[in-house]
Design brief:
- The chain is globular.
- It has a 7-stranded antiparallel sheet with strand order 1-2-3-5-6-7-4.
- It contains 3 helices and 7 strands; from the N terminus they run βαββαββββα.
- The protein is of the alpha+beta class.
- It has helices spanning 12-18, 65-81, 148-151; strands spanning 8-10, 30-35, 39-45, 92-101, 110-121, 124-133, 136-146.
Length: 158
């Protein structure tokens, strides 16, 4: 990317073109910036209308940990799925490590997410993501994600 070009950004339609997650598990609303092969930034706006709030919990609604992790991961995968040859490919978790929850997230909060791709080789993406609400740390973690269509090219033949 040259210094004069604007960073890539995607609305919900652009996100849907680049990754396979769909309602009810498409958990980012906008990708605000992508440096392909390096990083991605996104936001998720939580409203009380989210499907999980009535069950988590009706007397004190807050975002479940697995939703937070998935939001971070969906931002992370945009760091490489926005590259033409990987656009729209399926992804699978390999590992999730060092997850830390630092703040309760409630209806009305806007989660800002920053993800960094440290390595992408032979269909394995390694990186991390962290998030904030109003400048306060919310959640972070390290991820290894596989792109099966790429990974399978390097598996030994049976």
């Amino acid at each position: 990317m040259s210094d004069n070009s604007a960073p890539l950004a995607f609305d919900i339609n652009g996100i849907i073109r680049h990754q396979r997650n769909r309602y009810p598990v498409l958990l980012i609303d906008r990708v605000t910036a992508v440096d392909p092969g390096k990083s991605a930034s996104a936001v998720k706006c939580f409203t009380y209308n989210e499907w999980f709030f009535p069950g988590h919990f009706d007397d004190e609604p807050n975002v479940p940990g697995f939703i937070q992790i998935e939001s971070l991961t969906q931002t992370f995968i945009m760091s490489f799925l926005c590259m033409g040859e990987y656009c729209g490919m399926k992804t699978n978790f390999v590992s999730v490590n060092n997850v830390k929850f630092k703040r309760k997230i409630i209806p009305g909060d806007v989660l800002k997410i920053e993800a960094t791709l440290k390595s992408f080789k032979r269909g394995l993406a390694i990186g991390s993501a962290e998030s904030w609400v109003e400048g306060e740390a919310a959640c972070s973690g390290d991820f290894v994600v596989a792109v099966p269509d790429i990974l399978n090219r390097y598996k030994p033949k049976a």
